[in-house]
Amino acid sequence: MKRRIAIVLGLASVVLVAVVAVGTSYGAKTGTTKLTMWSYDNQDPGLEPVLKQLSKQFEQSHPGVQINLVFKDFNSLVGTVPRALASGNGPDVTEGNQGYQTDAQLVKAKLIIPLDKYVKKYHWDKLYSPSTWGMFRWTPDGKSFGKGPIWGLAQTGQNVVVFYNKTKLRSLGFNPNKMPTNFAGFDRLLAQVRAKLPKGDPVIEEGNQEGYGFIHLFGGIWGAYEKPANIRNWIYHVPGSRYDTPGTIRALGKLQQWAKAGYFNDDYNAVKYDNTAALFGKGKGVFWIGGDWDSTIIKAGLGAKNVGVMPIPPGRSGVWSGIGGLSGPWHISSKTKYADLGAEWLNYVITSATAKKLMFGQQQLPADSSANPPATDPYLTAVFQAFKRVADDNGLLLYTDWASPSMYTTLQNQYQLLLAGRTSPAGMANAVQSDWSKFDKTLH
Amino acid sequence: MTVGRFERMATYGFLVLFSVVAIYPVLSIFFLALHKKTDLVTGFALPTSLDFSSFKAAWTEGKFATGFKASFIVAATVTVVSAVLSIGTGYAFGTMRFVGDRVVFPIILLGIIFPYEATVIPLYYDFQNVPVLHWNLLNTYWALILPQIGQSVSFGTFWMRAFFRSTPRSLIEAARIDGATSFGVLWRVLIPQALPAVMTMSVLVFTYTWNEFLLALVLVSGSESHQTAPLGLSFFAGAARASDPTKVAAAAVLVAAPILVVYLFLQRHFVRGMLSGAIKE
Amino acid sequence: MLYRATGPSSTRRCIDLTAHAGRVAAAHPERAPRRLPRRLRNARAPGVPRNIGWLYVLPGLVFYGLFTLAPLVHTVYISLFSWDGLTAKTYAGLANYRTAIADHVLLWSFVHSGILILFYSVLPVVVGLALTAALTRHAVRGFRFFRTALFLPQLIAGVVIAQAWSWIYDDNGPLNAALRFIGLGSFVRPWLGDFTWALPSIGGIGTWVTFGLCMVLFVAGVQKIPSTLYDAARVDGAGPFREFYAVTLPGLRGEVLVAFVLTTINALRSFDIVYNTTAGGPGGQTLVPSLYMYQNAFLYNKVGYAAAVATILAAAIFVLAAIMLRFGDRGEPS
């Protein structure tokens, strides 16, 4: 009996040691160069299949190279990427996030490399306007946003727009081909829709579980009351800029009023952003206000003919605006052995003709301002027009959470409180501004 | 003794109710996983057809082959090593007196109520750059194995000590009289009897290690190849929820399955050990 | 018979071996010492003084010390610095603790944990006691099935529990469907997204996870209660409830204390479930200290402050455990 136990234990330990030894070996296949890319563009349909296909083609044209794509959701990626890069065995190329929470940290801790030499090599300066490049610039100490070397670049143009269910609008007695062209009109339309919709149906289907749903939605309202240039300056910490302006407070009040009037689905804090796009695609709600990167999910549900796309119409200034800018910035790790290869991959997925074709195929807008969508796709053209109108009006409001390392959380909490009626617009503006000020002090 | 019919029915009713409550959540995601991707699932809707495709999809897309391998390597190593260590410490505290034992034992016992969450910060930085040796152990199995051995030693010591204390003194003395060394006593006399207790301890440690999340989130989330199954599930749920809740439900069932299977076959060992009065002080 | 006796099968073997020892002594009288050596003569339970015990303790102690105790000390050390985790540290003394005391978010996170204690600890103990009474008062058919089922929640990974209960609490999920079905449609709400109900909803998950553990502890404890006490109570004409209050409950005192300590500590430590369901939302209503610590360390890059939060949490846990054990001991009949 004892002998048997001894033998079993002995065998078990041998097996264990073998397994552990094998498991901990980093055994890369000899001769293969493996690159790991992290991305949160995990929408399928959407950018995910584009990246997958492009990477496969890249592998074919580069024998011996293996591209390992890892998709995570935004919060998980942003929460784990700084440490992953710092560990030395993390991704070679990864998306980050513009702004003080993520990119500033990556720059300051020297976890990513400046891309200026690749900008020169691949002529990336032609991709976007000089002012757009600002969102990728940081001084090496990570303190000044908008100036200094270039640290990242983006694949697609992104914009938060209004998707509307044409069929449902028609059934309620509205004409989807004559959508309001100013904010007051849009506001009125929402009230009218609410009056005609059955009580359980939301006017706007919204998903705020991750916390960025309302950050996005608010942009269009904001732009109707406050100048986009002021908003951008505040994000860039231009001295003297403030969040708690009368315009912003009025805009927050308008958002709160929408919530009080019952425009939103009541589970908005429990449902995820992309989920609500899918639900809208299945017929829930009349409007979905969110990112155009989910346009494919919506199209898959409702069909291109039944969906309309437009930015939230402008306020009195007449400037079309909305939260948006470009997609997540791609960075190259400072600890990778394959920086040049990584840059080549980036060039391929962002600028090649194949890339643009695939992106359009998934209703994604290449960031390359020279790209035009094929005329044969009216839905895609509508999405593109919505982006172009806002971009041309210089109305892209960027993303508010960029303004400080804790701004994302502050906004998440404040929006939830505001919409539940537990804080006032002025209270929220105050809280956001104090977060900004506290951080601003550390920059000067 | 006669028990009233009403009381009997009430008792069974109560037990059945709570048993259903205990099992239902796992059943519900199992059913959710069996739905087709395109169903709009509501409430108690049972799947009209059993669609196992989401399990396959979850396994491949969630890369659970790697996740399971990682989880198994970590859990098995921790279980075996901490069992060996705990037999040793339990033996010492349970059958011997030595200088300082009254001080050291409570210190080890502290580990049972210890807030491990409070140690992840230094563990991260110390594994990133191990003092003196300057190794980088992040995103390796060691990063998960070493701390969890430390964590399991407390429970293991408590468990084995309680067991060894309950062993009759005369047994040990008889063996000593026969000329056995302390190790001989342990190996020849005590361990053979201790196997059920060791088994119980091992399945519990294996379970807790398999289920560990925060440590994995902090120490190995940078490398896909070393992610444990629960961590993989967390990432998968975040990424795939939008398009396919049935896939996420399937992934969740997959992650829970090994422990459940082991439990159903070995449930004697899980609970029996506790029932045999290891709570004795 | 009052309850199922399930003693360790090992006792039977012990007896055999003791008998064996006796037979050895009898067969080899020359080997049995007439007088035990002083060492053994002066021995008192639990065992003879043998410093070789250190040899057995050391390996385990090293792992424990190195990977559990040392990191805690290190956490306290880090809490004295202002650090973003990626660049160099700067010494800050007790500044992080001063910030912590004034931090409302931290205070509320502890309040939330306190509320969770009700769900993770008090309720499961009560339910566990009730289940124990039901299982042990008289022989129950299917005892093994009940025991297996009721203990199941303890074995499921937190991440899996989060997925399962996110579905149950979903707007279209079973809970709301059940409420609608029994006509309580007005109670339907987005549980995990609701300002008031998110925390109790998480609490509900905690109760579900823990009542099985309490039950198992208590059923084990019931076996130690002498059946004579129950017989006496019956003779006195006690019904099931009186019997419970008069005999079972006092007899389970030790186990109830252990249950309270373990479950309360778990309530304070909870991370997995909150992180994977609400991530502290909505509006911070379900934020708990461990999650706040994680956010500070790995999202806001305030590692020093996070370490201070961790230290405060650890201190709170140790103090609470000490109080409970001391309180429990005092009530113990001598």
Task: Furnish the topology, listing elements before pairings.
The complex is a heterotrimer of chains A (444), B (281) and C (334).
Chain A: H1 2-24, E1 33-39, H2 47-61, E2 65-71, H3 74-87, E3 93-95, H4 103-108, H5 116-122, H6 130-133, E4 137-138, E5 145-150, E6 153-154, E7 156-165, H7 166-171, H8 183-196, H9 213-225, H10 228-235, H11 246-260, H12 273-281, E8 287-291, H13 295-302, E9 307-310, E10 324-326, E11 329-332, H14 339-351, H15 353-361, E12 365-366, H16 378-392, H17 407-419, H18 425-443
Parallel strand pairs in A: 1-2, 1-3
Antiparallel strand pairs in A: 3-11, 4-5, 6-11, 7-8, 7-9, 7-10, 7-12
Helix pairs in contact in A: 9-11, 11-18, 12-13, 14-15, 17-18
Chain B: H1 5-34, H2 53-61, H3 64-95, H4 101-109, H5 120-128, H6 141-165, H7 169-177, H8 182-211, H9 214-219, H10 229-240, H11 245-275
Chain C: H1 10-27, H2 38-41, H3 53-78, E1 81-82, E2 90-91, H4 95-102, H5 104-136, H6 143-151, H7 158-168, H8 174-181, H9 198-222, H10 227-235, H11 240-251, H12 253-269, H13 272-277, H14 289-298, H15 303-331
Antiparallel strand pairs in C: 1-2
Helix pairs in contact in C: 3-15, 4-15, 5-9, 5-12, 9-12, 10-11, 12-15, 14-15
Average residue-wise pLDDT of chain C: 82
Q: What's the architecture of the largest domain in chain A, going by CATH? A: 3-Layer(aba) Sandwich
Backbone CA Rg of chain C: 26 Å
Helical content of chain C, roughly?
A: 55-70%
Describe the structure.
The complex is a heterotrimer of chains A (444), B (281) and C (334). Chain A has helices at residues 2-24, 47-61, 74-87, 103-108, 116-122, 130-133, 166-171, 183-196, 213-225, 228-235, 246-260, 273-281, 295-302, 339-351, 353-361, 378-392, 407-419, 425-443, and strands at 33-39, 65-71, 93-95, 137-138, 145-150, 153-154, 156-165, 287-291, 307-310, 324-326, 329-332, 365-366. Chain A is of the alpha+beta class and 444 residues long. Chain A has two domains: 33-155 and 327-388, 3-Layer(aba) Sandwich (D-Maltodextrin-Binding Protein, domain 2), CATH 3.40.190; 158-324 and 395-443, 3-Layer(aba) Sandwich (D-Maltodextrin-Binding Protein, domain 2), CATH 3.40.190.10. Chain B has 281 residues and is mostly helical. Chain B is globular, with a radius of gyration of 23 Å. Chain C has 15 helices and two strands. Chain C has helices at 10-27, 38-41, 53-78, 95-102, 104-136, 143-151, 158-168, 174-181, 198-222, 227-235, 240-251, 253-269, 272-277, 289-298, 303-331; strands at residues 81-82, 90-91. In chain C, helix 9 runs antiparallel to helix 12 (253-269). Classes of the chains: A alpha+beta (444), B mainly alpha (281), C mainly alpha (334). Chains in contact: A-B, A-C, B-C.
